[in-house]
Write a structure and sequence with these properties.
With about 220 residues, the protein is α+β, with helices and mostly antiparallel strands. The protein is built from six helices and six strands; from the N terminus they run ααββααβββαβα. A hairpin with a 6-residue loop joins strand 3 and strand 4.
């Protein structure tokens, strides 16, 4: 075991809530967790409204809101089921610069649940934008994604659902679908563009900075 791992384990022991817990987690799994690299299984249609699946959906929604994210997949809370949730609020969008909103074609997405989603590309033109992931905390990179897609599947009530997205919402959908197939954006990113989003703070603090893996 390396010095870094020993140090991290020592700090982890100081946590008042330390100890193994079973998924679904209320935190986001991080790159290196085998769950993120497995292809997720379909949910039997007659099980969508079961307490087990409803609990997964409820926790996904909770974690999405708690982390202030725009998308969250079941593997990110430790469950290899083909479920993801997405949402992009007006408040979140307005926090961005006008030129960013325009260039990324951002628009409001209500809280939406997809179970057993299937993706169809509507526009094969690819657009490159900077992308991050809660499972690769504090890093980002440039990623090419299709411009428009259609997603079909089931909602939390087990009813068929189908929507088309373009711009930033289409990127969110493709990102979450990758999670369900055991993929991460690091697999398709422009490798030279990968950066730590707090690199400047690391220099300003002379390296004495902590990166939280869960919001307060």
């Amino acid at each position: 075991m390396g010095v870094l791992r020993k140090t991290l384990n020592w700090y982890a022991k100081l946590s008042p809530s330390r100890g193994r817990t079973n998924p679904p987690y209320e935190h986001v799994t991080q790159i290196g967790d085998p769950t993120l690299r497995k292809i997720s299984e379909d949910v039997p249609i007659d099980k969508i409204r079961s307490p087990e699946i409803q609990k997964i959906i409820a926790i996904l929604q909770h974690v999405l809101k708690h982390y202030g994210s725009v998308g969250m997949s079941a593997p990110q809370i430790g469950i290899n089921k083909r479920i993801f949730v997405m949402r992009h609020t007006i408040k979140e969008i307005k926090s961005e610069l006008p030129e960013i909103i325009k260039s990324r074609c951002m628009y409001e997405i209500p809280l939406t649940v997809y179970v057993n989603p299937r993706l169809k590309v509507l526009d094969y033109e690819k657009v490159v934008h900077t992308e991050g992931c809660e499972s690769i905390r504090s890093f980002q990179a440039e990623v090419a994604r299709y411009k428009a897609v259609k997603i079909s599947g089931y909602n939390s009530d087990g009813e068929e659902s189908c929507h088309s997205y373009h711009g930033w919402p289409a990127r969110i959908v493709q990102h979450e679908m990758d999670h369900l197939d055991g993929k991460l954006y690091t697999d398709i990113m422009d490798r030279k563009s990968l950066q730590c989003i707090c690199w400047d703070e690391v220099n300003l603090s002379k390296g004495k900075i902590a990166i939280p893996f869960r919001p307060d």
